[in-house]
Amino acid sequence: MASPFSDPTFYQDRYPTYAALRERSPVLQIPVDGSTRAAVVVTGYEQARQAFAANLSKDTSAYFADRPSGRSLHPAVAHTMLHTDPPAHTRLRRLAARAFTPTTVDGLRPYIHTLAEHLVGLWEPGDETDLIAHLASPLPVTVICQLLGIPPADRAAIRIWSTDLFATGDHTRIDAASHALADYMTQLIAAKRNSPDTALLSRLIAVRDGDGGRLSEEELVSLGLLLLVAGHETTTAAIGNAALALLQHPDDLEHLRADPHRIPTAVDELLRYDSPVSIATWRHAPEAAQLDETEVAAGTPVFVCPGAANRDPRKFTDPDRLDLNRPDAAQHLAFGHGVHRCLGAPLAHAEIETMLRVLLKRFPGMRLAVPAEELRWRHSRLIRGLESLPVLL
């Protein structure tokens, strides 16, 4: 059996594939990545929560130790906090969590709003523009760069490298981007040591240099990269997906415009309806385990699919319908679950909310500039996001 993720049509519309897999079994062993070696794919909601909370390993260095791949992915990208297990993960996450406290995110809201107003203020009624290139991408990348202390002149290159890093199947492009990002972060850390500021990266350097080795130099570079890349790639996809969903449901868009107080709860339904994280980052079973009724042999890769779990009819009534009044929408798994739940979830939520408030106020009559079926989706297994979103203002 061929991998269901190798079909080009999967990237245009993943949900029929997910439904077919879930119908066979919410936990299914199938070939992935063109090999005959089976992996476990989790598409059911309760089973995904179980897998997120299970004793599965994310330590890719341990898993690939005896599987030479010929890849040259930079270690700072290959072995981030996302690819560690407790207690190392616990220590690193505690340090990174300082960037995403409720106080920090609330303090960023005025900056996010001002930035969104600036970006949208460059447009005029009657224009055609690309919401991905001119709002969904620059908004979160600028916010995370501001939080970390990344110089404005470097941000365009970071957007290009980050996009390349998620180019599923193009290993040469991915590996080159990983080295470019790691080299950049290494040089930036050296510059910040000489001229520290009050931004997050300088604070992490202070932890590294002044607290008895709580953070090694390799971990510092890797953590900086993770915060930088994870801090905007999925949010860019989420903003684009949310905007497209509302453009395809004009009655819902009008209701939100008339009552913007509903926007925060609507964001959860938009995240459920078209999750920016389609298949979560790599996990494997370090020893024999059981997920639902499926026995998982030691060493088996496990792919948990939030995009599928959020459309599970056993959890969400009529899951393929956008329902901004859905009472349990906040139970979506777009940000994961358990100890690896997305640290930046509050910041991403704030950015999506702000984008909707500004767009609905400035351009209430906005509509798609091309038929929805002509839109192109990124060729990324991890991220469900548009390459571009042309709209008429």
Mean of residue pLDDT values = 90
Structural class: alpha+beta
End-to-end separation in angstroms reads: 46 Å
Strand composition percent: 5-15%
SS element count, helices: 18
CATH C-level label: Mainly Alpha
The rough form would be described as globular
Rg over C-alpha atoms, rounded to the nearest angstrom: 21 Å
Strand order of the largest sheet: 1-2-7-4
The number of E-state strands comes to 9
| Major sheet | 4 strands, mixed
Whole-number total of structural domains: 1
Overview of this protein structure:
The protein is of the alpha+beta class and 393 residues long. The chain has one domain: Cytochrome p450. The protein is 49% helix and 8% strand. The chain has 18 helices and nine strands. The chain has helices spanning 9-12, 15-24, 45-53, 60-63, 75-78, 88-96, 102-121, 131-136, 138-148, 155-165, 171-194, 200-210, 217-230, 233-247, 250-258, 263-273, 306-309, 345-362, and strands at residues 27-31, 38-42, 128-130, 283-284, 289-291, 294-296, 301-304, 367-368, 390-392. Strands 1-2-7-4 form a four-stranded mixed beta sheet. A three-stranded antiparallel beta sheet has the order 3-9-8. A two-stranded antiparallel ribbon has the order 5-6. A hairpin with a 6-residue loop joins strand 1 and strand 2 (38-42). Helix 7 (102-121) runs parallel beside helix 18 (345-362), helix 9 (138-148) packs antiparallel against helix 13 (217-230) and helix 14 (233-247) packs parallel to helix 18. The longest helix has 24 residues, at 171-194. The protein is globular, with a radius of gyration of 21 Å.
